[in-house]
Design a protein that fits this description.
The chain has 16 helices and ten strands. The chain has 415 residues and is an alpha/beta fold.
């Protein structure tokens, strides 16, 4: 007999629709038709040369460590070529930090006692998902403990990690920030919505359509309770305090929601704003800055000061050969001064090809997208990440080292 043949009496319309959802969900689960929530995939291994570049040591030194049986044992491939997993790279970091204590910060950059958690909110804009992805993965490869939070209801960042939000429909428990921020009694702990990724040291809070529900509930509550200032953002601050000790850096990928974005700005220690070097895009970015300022002013009027360590701007999808774009970058640099990052992310077929494969360049070998294009794209991405890592070092009272290292590596690549 069909499930819906004897529906409950005195059922409201919303209750009836929810019952239909449950019955359809149960039926699809029984038939094995529910898409896998997570695409299980391993991260590739890194060659000895790549590991040497990541750690800032010579390949011959790593080779000798392996011969002497020191540190993790790499996998031996054809012709005795050594390769390491990211977990083994982190084990190497721990070994080298003990073996060369004067360089411990270089090998193991995790924050020490007294250094505050860095929360970098990437404002919604052109290339913001790509920026969030490469920054989170780049920091993890450099040895930081990273949490990425996707506040996009469409889950654009989550998909790049193999998480597919439609499966949330069939889950009894929320898995996005909605679960940790909900106004209802069914609010869950922050830890319960954190998922692992295939990058050692990098976790994710996926973005799902549940986030739209939080926006609707926040809007309704704000108007119905005659709140003078929105206080939804306090909930995000409280949620992150729960896991503060577990991470060094949190990357928040902002969506379009106003209340969630306000939360991202209030909890942030730094904000990254992306912009394309074209006049219409600069106009659009300038208008979005007005919303940014408005959100911050409301929080400040509520008596909660917002003291970001930095607000930086990043030029993305830049064609350096285009004269008009050169002029646009010069205008941005004149207007924003040192708040505009020196590095720009170039328009790249390699980045686009990797995106179509739902992978980052860190996950692919150079041959998958063309070696020349791969190396050029990685140079611009790593240079951007290096500037951000030096900003983090400055906040923690450490000397900068990443930009200079990236410059040396870029020189090798060009030669």
């Amino acid at each position: 007999m069909p499930r819906s043949e004897n529906p409950p009496q005195m059922e409201t319309t919303s209750e009836r629709i929810k019952r239909h959802i449950k019955e359809l969900s149960d039926g699809l689960i029984e038939r094995g038709a529910v898409p896998s929530f997570r695409d299980e995939r391993p991260l590739r291994s890194f060659s000895l040369g790549e590991v040497a570049e990541i750690l800032g040591v010579s390949g011959s030194y790593l080779r000798q460590l392996s011969i002497d049986g020191l540190g993790p044992t790499p996998e031996l491939g054809t012709a005795g070529r050594r390769s390491y997993t990211l977990r083994q790279i982190n084990e190497l970091r721990a070994y080298l930090a003990l073996a060369r204590p004067k360089e411990a910060l270089k090998f193991c950059p995790r924050r020490r006692e007294g250094e505050k958690l860095q929360i970098i909110s990437v404002a919604s804009g052109p290339g913001s998902t790509t920026t969030s992805l490469y920054l989170a993965q780049g920091l993890a490869i450099q040895g930081y403990r990273v949490l990425a939070i996707d506040l996009d209801p469409k889950g654009s960042l989550s998909k790049m990690f193999g998480y597919y939000f439609p499966a949330i429909l069939f889950s009894e428990h929320p898995v996005s920030m909605y679960g940790a921020l909900s106004y209802n009694d069914d609010r869950v702990s922050m830890r319960s919505v954190i998922q692992s990724t295939h990058f050692d040291g990098l976790d994710l809070v996926p973005g799902t359509f549940e986030l739209d529900r939080f926006e609707s509930e926040s809007t309704r509550r704000f108007h119905n309770e005659n709140l003078r200032y929105p206080d939804a953002s306090i909930k995000m601050v409280s949620a992150l305090k729960e896991v503060e000790a577990d991470y060094d850096v949190v990357i928040v990928h902002c969506g379009r929601g106003s209340f969630l974005t306000a939360g991202a700005y209030e909890t942030a220690t730094g904000v990254l704003v992306t912009v394309r070097p074209q006049c219409p895009e600069i106009v659009s970015m300038t208008m979005s800055l007005d919303y940014y300022a408005h959100d911050i002013s409301l929080i400040e009027k509520a008596g909660r000061p917002v003291n970001h360590d930095f607000t930086k701007y990043l030029v993305t999808r830049h064609d350096p050969r285009d004269v008009s774009e050169q002029e646009a970058v010069a205008f941005l640099r004149y207007s924003l001064g040192d708040d505009l990052l020196t590095a720009t992310v170039w328009e790249s077929d390699a980045i686009s090809e990797a995106w179509l494969k739902k992978r980052s360049l860190y996950e692919l070998l150079a041959g998958a997208v063309g070696r020349s294009a791969y190396e050029q794209a990685m140079e611009t991405l790593n240079s951007t990440n290096a500037e951000v890592m030096d900003l983090i070092s400055e906040v923690w009272g450490r000397p900068p080292m990443y930009v200079s290292r990236a410059s040396r590596t870029a020189g090798k690549a060009r030669s």
